Amino acid sequence: MSTATIVSLPDQSTARVPKMNFLTRENGLLSWLLTGDHKRIATLYLISITFFFFIGGALAGLIRLELLTPQSDLLAMDTYNKVFTMHGIIMIFFFLVPSVPATLGNFLIPMMVGAKDLALPKINLLSWYLYMIAGVMAIYTMIAGGVDTGWTFTTPLSTHYLNTHVISTGLAIFVAGFSSIFTGLNFIVTIHKMRCPGMTWFRLPLFVWSNYAASILMVLGTPVLAITLVLIVLERTVGIGVFDPAKGGDPLLFQHLFWFYSHPAVYIMILPGMGVISEVVSTFSRKRVFGYTAVAFSSVAIAVFGFFVWAHHMFIMGISNYAALVFSLLTMLVAVPSAIKIFNWAFTLYKGSITFETPMLYAFGFMGLFTIGGMTGVFLGATGTDIHLTETYFIVAHFHFVMVGGMLMAFLSGIHFWWPKWTGRMYPEKISQFAAVTTFIGFNLTFFPQFILGMLGMPRRYASYPPEFQVLNVFSTAGATVLGVGYLLPILYLTWSLKYGAVAGDNPWQATGLEWMTQSPPLTENFPQIPVMDHEAYDYEWLERQQQQEVASV
Amino acid sequence: MQLEQPRPDETPGEHIHIVSPKVYGTIFVALLFLTAATCGISYVDLGVFNAVVAMAIACTKMTLVVLFFMHIKYSNKLTKLTVASGIFLFLSLIGMIMSDYISRAWGRW
Of A249, A310, A356, A445, whose CB neighbour count within 10 A is largest? Predict the structure, then answer.
């Protein structure tokens, strides 16, 4: 690995973190709980989603420990069902959906477009409160006895056959849905209305484009999920019969409505992560993102196509063969914009001056793992292979490659990349590189064996399995412990760096985004004066000229 | 620190249309009338048209609310486009679900 670096820090003997910044502007609990500052709300979100990530992670640990042996010995079978259900619900609705948009998006989008806050600061705060209310409801469900429908709430299981806490969980997700609608709405309004002078649509950083696309999905898709969950609650409480064949309903209608949101939800989760990767790849190869316009529009294309593929989750559920054919073809279409992104990042690297700081290592992890996750999605999108692979560990491996290998890598990449901006201090480089590599190794050890298990026919969602699958399951559990270390390390050294990290200065990465043109941590108003965007995005020559001028004028 | 920044509702070239109480009143009465119509028609058996008529009245009411109470009639093209995208998506949802229901009985090839 090359030891070259682009990091340029101020002289540490004289450098200080600016005394006046958004963190120090006001003190006391109320100044945080009643804040309208997008950066403080992002900080609240960061702490909250980390909390939920560790609950979800602990549940994942329990699942892997149970699967260490073929018998159901650590957890009773119905407890196991509750554990994997809560793992899914917490990780999806309380970690992945808000992960990048509500933390990094909230923190960065106003700065990237050159505004002093989001368009609707109070709605932004409300969104965090709704998230917390939903989180408390989910934790209440867990303490009160849990829910065992799987995160998909499939009818008639969830409406007729189970006596667990389906209603409180459904309502928790309903409330969490409004939180994400508000975040999306805020981003859309901000990006349309609050761009600084000179900031045209095609000068926006690609992070903004991808969050814009994800916001459209949030605003248009989430209401459908909300209504569907209300129907489940009504079906259980008053028996309205929308999903009950005995009353003229159809259980498959639930799956249609559920996946109409939940498939685009996958893109809500991954698109903001793709935005992070665009920023990181460009910065650490010192080149403008190859095919900027294509990458920008591929985000929008993913958002649009994402709405027309949902029934590929239902190929074996008894939908029409003809509909399955159409949905299968449409599914293949989504691979195109995703591939455009991967190819364009690869071309950005081509002949770039690549350095291997931690965010870039995570970004490389993302590109490899997301590609495997995406390609195995094509297997599952083909109706023939889907019949063999669906409801097996192949599916589990596929979406963990996309969600954990892709999205979580992107999230960690982004957290490391913008940590100096957020806190004013650098994270320790060597140990964080070690954590990134550990995560990558642990991830592959955990999830690659699951592809093989799925091909061999091991079904998902069972606490016990035939003994011949044990070796691969032991690999997977061993990998999960390595992965656990990989996720624990950043918590430790990032907390350490809050006090002891090197002072970062305004622009440690020599990046070109507007967020790097202000102090770290930024002022509450972001910029001392409204910036004017007088150059294209990712224009490293412009940055060089700026720096030369500064040197000349000093 | 005071900074000058246009507020989102003060973008140049946009004006806020004020709707007269008379228009609101008319729409309100129309909505009441349509609600009464829904109730009244539920006592008449129209066969297969029971659902069709009820849905038609509901859609009319929705259109009135969106156009007048939500000010879409007086909004700019971007807002109209936003509403249209929601309607388009809803029609896609219904249309593609129907494509499954219609062809489910066609059997295997």
Answer: A310
B89 and B56 in a common domain:
no
Number of residues that this document lists for chain A: 554
Same domain, B93 and B80: yes
Q: Establish if A15 belongs to a structural domain.
A: no
Domain presence at residue B52:
yes
Q: Is the CB of A323 less than 8 angstroms away from the CB of B96?
A: yes
The structural domain count of chain B equals 2
Q: What is the pLDDT of residues A285-309, one digit of tens each?
A: 999 999 999 999 999 999 999 999 9
Looking at the domain assignment, is residue B4 inside a domain?
no
Question: Residue A392: what are its φ and ψ, rounded to 5°?
Answer: -115, 180
Does the residue A16 lie in any domain? no
The whole domain housing A437 covers 29-553
Domain presence at residue A17: no
| B42 and B56 both lie in a single domain | yes
Percent of chain B's residues with pLDDT above 90: 61
C-alpha closest to that of A479 among A432, A440, A433, A431: A440
In chain A, the number of structural domains is 1
Quote ipTM for the complex.
0.84
Q: Do A308 and B96 touch (CB under 8 A)?
A: yes
Are B57 and B87 contained in the same domain?
Answer: no
Residue to mutate among A25, A321, A330, A532, with most B CBs inside 10 A, is A321
- Whether residue B79 sits in one domain with residue B65: no
Q: Give dist(CA A531, CA A445) in Å, integer.
A: 47
**Nearest CA-CA distance, residue A120 and chain B, Å:** 9
Q: Are residues B64 and B92 in the same domain?
A: no
Set of chain A residues whose Cβ sits within 8 Å of the Cβ of B97? 253, 256
pTM: 0.93
> Among A193, A316, A530, which would you mutate to test the B interface (most chain B Cβ atoms within 10 Å of its Cβ)?
A193
A236-278 pLDDT per residue, tens: 999 899 999 999 899 999 999 999 999 999 999 999 999 999 9
Tell me whether residues A220 and B85 touch, CB distance under 8 A.
yes
Chain B residues with CB under 8 Å of A527 CB are 3
Range of the domain at B85: 74-102
Question: Residue A229 and residue A290: Cα distance in Å, rounded?
Answer: 42
> Which residues in chain B are contacts of A260 at CB distance < 8 A?
93
**Domain CATH number, residue A425:** 1.20.210.10
- Residues of chain B with C-beta less than 8 angstroms from the C-beta of A330: none
